[in-house]
Every structure is written in structure tokens, then in C-alpha cells.
Please model this.
Amino acid sequence: PSWVTHTEDEVVQIIEKLAKEGKGSAQIGIVLRDQYGIPSARMVSGKKISTVMKEKKLYPKLPEDLFSLLKHAVRLRDHLGKNKRDAHSKRGLEKAESRVRDLAKYYKRKGSLPAGWKYDPERAKLLVQE
Model:
């Protein structure tokens, strides 16, 4: 768009700075849109935010969608530890863990996860706490 005054190098630097702060690609996109007036990093730089992060070796080990599902499952497990009779949350945990396993299967096929990676609630808790 004509109103965007940032150059390709500036956008890449902003993405790099935000990634070093620990933000994910979705959060970086929101910051670019709201604070810098950049509607799409791809329009300005010609690359997706995740591509820039991978080039700078700032992309997280786990894919972001899998990581957010792991966080959700860990929160549900903690909730069920305190509220054992909450059947709705128990069903939500089953669905979340099923989505984690399905997504992990996909990422193993794609090569983003190691072939031996398995979902384990205790290990997920450790991954989320990092």
C-alpha cells in the first residue's frame, strides 16, 4: 500500500527485534499492524514473518499452533487437578489432547518434529514452563 513508509530492511529489523523479545509470528503481525501501520509484512518485505524468523534462526523449536494447544492442555490439566468433577473440562481436555496428537502426526510427516516425538502431559508441562 502507498501509505506504508517502512522499507523492507526496516520491517525485517522490527520482526527480528520482536522475535528476540519472545513474541510469536501472530503476535508480531498484530504489532506490525497496530503500532507500525504495516498491514502485511509479506506485501512490504516479500516474505512471511515466519520465513524471516527462520532465516534469522529465531523461530521456536515447536510450531506455534502445537505450542498453544500444549499450553491449553496443561491449563486444563491444572484446572482438573483442582476440580475433579468438572466433566465439561474433562471432555475439553480429551479434545485438546486429541488435537495435539493429530497435529503432532502432521508435523512428524512434514519433518518439523522428530519422528520419535510423542505427547506426554508431564513433558508438555515442562515445555510450556520454559
Notes: The mean pLDDT is 92. DSSP finds seven helices and no strands in the chain. The radius of gyration is 18 Å. Residues 24 and 105 are 22 Å apart (CA to CA).
